Amino acid sequence: MISGSIVALVTPMFDDGSTDWESMDALLDMHIREGTGAIVSVGTTGESATLSVKEHCAVIAHTVKKVDGAIPVIAGTGANSTREAIELTAAAQAYGADACLLVTPYYNKPTQEGLYQHHKCIAEAVAIPQILYNVPGRTGVDMLPVTVGRLAGIENIIGIKEATGDLQRGREVLDICAGRMAVYSGDDETAAELILMGAKGNVSVTANVAPALMARLCQFALAGDTEKARELDARLRPLSKALFLESNPIPVKWAVARQGHIGGHLRLPMTELAKAYHEPLTSAMRALDLL
């Protein structure tokens, strides 16, 4: 089972928007070295919304090849078109990804029945293990626990990234999925508590900047070491908050660039981190000796 700290990896880019493959390779090496449990390739943090289908597939293929089985690669293949999601998921399977992460269809706001049929259709069309991704704050649609429970009965739907940040909701999802599929946090600020409640890991933005610390936090929580998990969580929380001072992935790309790992360029409509946020994010990084 995929578990622990699962980094939602940024996609390094040059100032013309093209992919910086050398920096990507260095990031992947770093995450393997620092104890990250798995890579999410081309999720929201990887700027999936502004990569073409060809670029999207190229990043997944490159990541799988570079990682070469050292840790699992989870390909972001969600779309608000069921047909497009099937095409991306089939491509990820062909490239050798270990699993796919499928966000709920955004903008067109399907019903709960529509969400069920969408994910059921993808699971039946492509055999690769699939992880649901519920993030209503970004998609405008909320997959309710009852719908998650229905989908948990499908064999190759193996988990859900629950990114509401609501621990009561997390408990409901854990209860309804018990023994049938894994639950992963998608919210760094509440991840430790959700793992202590029974989740299997954290799909993390913060891990881009603090991979070793997030890996340790997840290890403590998975081991049931409440004291150590909460102590480290308290240290990491200011950084996790600072990484959402503006829309993700604006702050995290700035932070990883500040560490010297990437150039920090984004594609429009994402823009560079506002200067007003440079100091608070820098301070949060310095407090953890990350600069």
What's the helix and strand layout?
Blueprint: E1 4-8, H1 21-34, E2 38-41, H2 53-67, E3 73-76, H3 82-95, E4 99-103, H4 112-125, E5 130-134, H5 136-139, H6 145-151, E6 157-162, H7 167-177, E7 182-185, H8 191-197, E8 201-204, H9 211-222, H10 226-242, H11 250-258, H12 278-286
Parallel strand pairs: 1-2, 1-8, 2-3, 3-4, 4-5, 5-6, 6-7, 7-8
Helix pairs in contact: 1-2, 2-3, 3-4, 4-6, 6-7, 8-9, 9-10
Structure description:
- This protein has 291 residues and is an alpha/beta fold.
- Helix 1 (21-34) crosses helix 2, helix 3 (82-95) packs parallel to helix 4 (112-125) and helix 6 runs parallel beside helix 7 (167-177).
- The relative contact order is 0.14.
- The chain has one domain (4-225): TIM Barrel.
- It is 46% helix and 13% strand.
- The chain has helices at 21-34, 53-67, 82-95, 112-125, 136-139, 145-151, 167-177, 191-197, 211-222, 226-242, 250-258, 278-286, and strands spanning 4-8, 38-41, 73-76, 99-103, 130-134, 157-162, 182-185, 201-204.
- The protein is globular and about 45 Å long.
Helix content class: 40-55%
- Spatial order of the strands in the main sheet? 1-2-3-4-5-6-7-8
Strand content: 5-15%
Helices and strands: which structural class?
alpha/beta
By DSSP, the count of extended strands is 8
Q: What is the level 1 CATH name?
A: Alpha Beta
Determine the mean pLDDT. 97
Instruction: Report the biggest beta sheet as strand number plus sense, adding barrel if it closes.
Output: 8 strands, parallel, barrel
Overall number of structural domains: 1
CATH superfamily: Aldolase class I
